[in-house]
């Protein structure tokens, strides 16, 4: 689709401008005692998983407008993610959704993954919709259901997911439950929680000792009165009930408007219970928009908290699983994913620039203005040349989206897969 040589040719035409911008920024940072190459190395090492369900055009219950050339099977999804990774060198793994993307020919998939320098990041279970051959319905819940037959079906599905993951060397099971209720009185809150905890414990016991279970929360949708796991506190309590290998997953879009997400991140890091992150953007209450597209300063404050926790030796938190989880309704999904990764890396880079010694001093001395200005200084620095340089040094494109367009990749995919091909997913 696009060769490394073609990427280098495209870089060549941008090199002069890039070098000018990079030299200016590098010299300025150097004067302030910041080790520029160390920052570049950290940015180059930062990898974000791409979900197998986000390579097609998303939609709403009102309609879906496909971009054309969508991947028709798991193999083509791997090819698409391989392409993203070749362009930005920052998307080296896939989150697999079961049953939309059940691995069939495992040796062939392993070979394809290796050819594209990719691994499987996590397997994600789905008990939010009924499959055609399913003996019981999830209409009134899955792991929380009043009927043990339904709960057992959902437990077995999660165990199946673990087995699919084991075959492909994954080590993470991500559980998001759509369980909840739409009307007051419909569900007994305490019993629904207890049944969920016990169901999760059955899954947890079936998990290999070196696996992690990530428990994701969401305040509403698909249910509009109550969700069984609506907030981080519920996720956290379930993790404590299950054991050390259960961790909370924070999805940026799964919060009510104006929630202080950075504080939640700080809390969970403090408890050593932050296991993973789902990146997306949100305006009202959705979880579908491009990462960083609506509230870039809040996104920076979240990353600031993450970097602070990751660099503090007092914090005993496992390394985090980073993944994009958005739905692309209007844009070409591959362009949207490239934009998302750019936004994540740019924001991460800014957080790395924060002078933590000075910030800590300002906080200890209650110097509110200096503390805030230190954050704003990093946030307002244009770090894009550092991100471009990290990609260039890793063999990627200086400008991945420009390279994607110059290589006419979507046109090529439409020619190969057809205008009407539809990817399974959101
Ligand atoms: Mn999510």
Question: Layout of helices and strands, plus pairs?
Answer:
Blueprint lengths: L3 H28 L4 H10 L4 E2 L7 E2 L2 E2 L9 H15 L4 E5 L8 H10 L3 E6 L23 H20 L4 E5 L3 E2 L7 H17 L6 E5 L9 E2 L4 H11 L3 E6 L9 H11 L2 E6 L16 H16 L9 E4 L8 H21 L2 H9 L3 H12 L4 H10 L6 H7 L2 H9 L9
Parallel strand pairs: 1-4, 4-5, 5-6, 6-8, 8-10, 10-11, 11-12
Antiparallel strand pairs: 2-3, 7-9
Helix pairs in contact: 1-13, 2-10, 2-13, 5-6, 8-9, 9-10, 11-12
Bound molecules: manganese (II) ion.
The site of manganese (II) ion (MN) has 5 residues, from loops.
| Secondary structure tally: strands | 12
Number of helices: 15
CATH architecture: Alpha-Beta Barrel
Morphology: globular
Which H/E pattern describes the elements?
A: HHEEEHEHEHEEHEEHEHEHEHHHHHH
Q: Would you give the CATH topology?
A: TIM Barrel
- Assembly category: single chain
Summed up, the domain count is 1
Which structural category do the helix and sheet elements fall into? alpha/beta
Percentage of helical residues? 40-55%
Query: What is the CATH domain class?
Result: Alpha Beta
Q: Determine the N-to-C terminus distance.
A: 25 Å
Give the uncertain stretches in residue-range form.
none
- The percent range for strand residues is 5-15%
What ions, cofactors and ligands are bound?
manganese (II) ion
User: Mean pLDDT, as a whole number?
Assistant: 96
* Major sheet: arrangement of strands: 1-4-5-6-8-10-11-12
Query: What's the main sheet like?
Result: 8 strands, parallel
**Can you tell me the CATH superfamily?**
Divalent-metal-dependent TIM barrel enzymes
Radius of gyration: 22 Å
